[in-house]
Design a protein that fits this description.
Layout lengths: L3 H4 L32 H4 L6 H13 L17 E3 L10 E5 L11 E7 L2 E7 L3 E6 H6 L3 E7 L2
């Protein structure tokens, strides 16, 4: 899978539950949000959340439409489990969770590995879609819990 597919969408905002196999969508209202970006459906804005961007990238790169758009994404769509950050290759979908003991059974965040220890993701309302290091995510309390290679 080519990570460049996902990178082409870096201009879109973060939208809670936004994105599908065809690209950015309005998503749904996030009642825990300040409303500035994640309530895209109310203001007619389209974008991605982390799992939406990941499933879009996988579908565009492989034709695999079986990934879920939720915290169980790492359990869906088949693919090869990658347990170590040292084994990552560009295009792998990287998974993070605030509770490392969850492993891949439930995830709080996903992104596309682009190489050099960096991940492209729809991060949040504040940060939008951007590339950051795995260490940056971990400094915010997320633990790298694994990855999957769908290609």
């Amino acid at each position: 899978m080519n990570a460049a597919v996902a990178a082409q969408n870096a201009g879109y905002p973060y939208c809670f539950d936004g994105g599908d196999i065809n690209g950015p969508t309005v998503g749904i209202t996030d009642h825990g949000s300040d409303g500035s970006y994640s309530n895209c459906s109310q203001i007619g804005r389209v974008g991605f959340d982390c799992t939406g961007l990941s499933l879009y990238a996988v579908y565009q790169g492989t034709g695999n439409a079986a990934l879920s758009h939720d915290g169980h994404q790492a359990q869906s769509g088949g693919g090869q489990v990658i347990g170590s950050a040292a084994q990552l290759q560009p295009g792998d979908i990287v998974y993070f969770d605030y509770n490392a003991s969850h492993g891949l059974s439930y995830i709080d965040h996903s992104g596309i590995y682009v190489g050099g220890g960096n991940v492209l993701s729809a991060v949040s309302e504040k940060w939008g879609i951007r590339t950051e290091s795995i260490a940056w995510y971990e400094s915010g309390g997320l633990h790298f819990v694994g990855a999957k290679r769908y290609w």
